[in-house]
Amino acid sequence: MQQTLVLIKPDGLKKSLTGNILTRLSETKLEIAAAKMVRVSKELAESHYGHMKDKPFFGELIGYIMGELHDRRKVLALVYYGENAIKKVRELSGATNPEEADPVSIRGAYGRVTTKGVYENVLHTSTNEEEAEREIKLWFKPDEIIFDVYETEIITREVVKERVWKKK
Ligand code: IDP
Ligand code: MG
Fold it and tell me: Mean pLDDT in runs of 10 for the chain (168 residues)?
């Protein structure tokens, strides 16, 4: 059994593709183990794409995943769980460059390359187990995932600062 991170990127949300993408992903017969809307901070974006730091398009990539290009400062983050989850989701997603992706793959059907050269490929999917673990731990807390996918521990925090609803 494996788990993999899927992000429906801001272009996917802006183009109203969420339903279509989830329908395509349901072909895998995998289980959705977690799902949430996330406002992507610069810190989260840079951490997620940390391994791309030296790429010439890094700045655009961070702006893209933060929603700056689409006026949608959010992504839908999901964890898919099941047998061979990483490969199944990856195959259905298609190649990184949407122009090279199989036209029946999700990226091939819905992605595009902008005139500035940004690959707007509508979703992110983890490549391997190591990457999936790093990414799932970055985007989700243990209790947001319905299966115990990785080892956890209980810690006690001294100072807890939290945003709550303001009392009337
Ligand atoms: P992946 O998303 O298929 O795993 P990665 O190589 O991990 O591809 O790249 C992360 C993201 O960076 C891609 O999904 C795409 O949005 C962007 N990207 C990758 N390579 C290029 C490129 O050569 N030009 C522009 N954007 C790229
Ligand atoms: Mg990748």
Answer: 98 97 98 98 98 95 95 95 98 98 98 91 98 98 97 90 93
Question: May I ask the CATH class of domain 2-144?
Answer: alpha beta
Atom of ligand 1 nearest to the CA of 124: 2
Task: Specify whether 124 is catalytic.
Answer: yes
> What is the spatial distance between Cα 16 and Cα 112, in angstroms, rounded to a whole number?
15
Report d(CA 24, CA 106) in Å as an integer.
7
Select from 61, 89, 114, 130 the residue to mutate for testing ligand 1; criterion: most ligand atoms less than 8 Å from CB. 61
Atom 1 (ligand 1) nearest CA: 96
